[in-house]
Amino acid sequence: MASLLSTSLPSCLPSLLLVLLQLSSSSAGQFRVIGPGHPIRALVGDEVELPCRILPGKNATGMEVGWYRPPFSRVVHLYRNGKDQDEEQAPEYRGRTELLKETIGEGKVTLRIRHVRFSDEGGFTCFFRDHSYQEEAAMELKVEDPFYWINPGVLVLIAVLPVLLLQITVGLVFLCLQRRLRGKLRAEIENLHRTFGKSWGTQPPPPGGLDVSLSSCHLGK
């Protein structure tokens, strides 16, 4: 019997150690941090959300949760002691981040970044800390120009269209002014014709005209 135990114990020892490690890790509250698993894309000026969760899921309300940017560990957002620690943020992220905590009881949180800039592109690290135990997950943000995917022909049209509209507007204004000036000029000419026509029709006979007719009458006699 003793020989049987001595031969079976060495073979069972690795499995026993594995079970003990699993029990100790579960009792210590260990977990893994899971990020999106793929690059997240955002447009300049828009807002973007970076999700992060722990596995297995558990209530993370009492944990320290945060995002920072490597390599200098600039704090993007930090949640500690049940509230956001805005004073520890890097200056370029103050007033631009919000931690969505609706599902923090399930170990799921999301960081929202507003007014995305080109400088936001790159790596982010999300971490959960429970007492002395901490796990992290890396993620990547791709920032794109909203006009990058527009057809070059459309860009040319956008650049040329205002000039064409301006030229058309100036041309229409010129035609309207020309028509008005023509109408006014025609009216002035007609008024001149009327005025001078009346004056010419009522003009008295030239001097000496009456004498000529009288002298011709005397000669006739």
Automatic annotation (TrEMBL):
Q: How does it sit in the membrane?
A: Multi-pass membrane protein
Could you tell me which InterPro entries the record lists for this protein? Ig-like_dom, Ig-like_dom_sf, Ig-like_fold, Ig_sub, Ig_V-set, IgSF_BTN/MOG, Myelin-oligodendrocyte_glycop
Q: Which PANTHER family match?
A: BUTYROPHILIN (PTHR24100), MYELIN-OLIGODENDROCYTE GLYCOPROTEIN (PTHR24100:SF71)
What's the source species' lineage? Eukaryota, Metazoa, Chordata, Craniata, Vertebrata
Self-association and partners: Homodimer.
Q: Which parts of the sequence are annotated with region: Disordered? A: 198-221
Q: What is its main location?
A: membrane
Which segments cross the bilayer? 154-177
Report domain Ig-like positions.
14-144
Q: Where in the cell is it found?
A: Membrane
Secretion signal: which residues? Answer: 1-28
Q: State one Pfam family annotation.
A: V-set
**Protein role:** Minor component of the myelin sheath. May be involved in completion and/or maintenance of the myelin sheath and in cell-cell communication. Mediates homophilic cell-cell adhesion.
Family from the record: Belongs to the immunoglobulin superfamily. BTN/MOG family.
Keywords, ordered alphabetically: Cell adhesion, Disulfide bond, Glycoprotein, Immunoglobulin domain, Membrane, Signal, Transmembrane, Transmembrane helix
GO CC terms? membrane
At the top level of its lineage, which domain of life is listed?
Answer: Eukaryota
Query: Which Gene Ontology biological process is one annotated for this entry?
Result: cell adhesion
Identification of the protein by name? Myelin-oligodendrocyte glycoprotein
Q: Which organism is it from?
A: Sus scrofa (Pig)
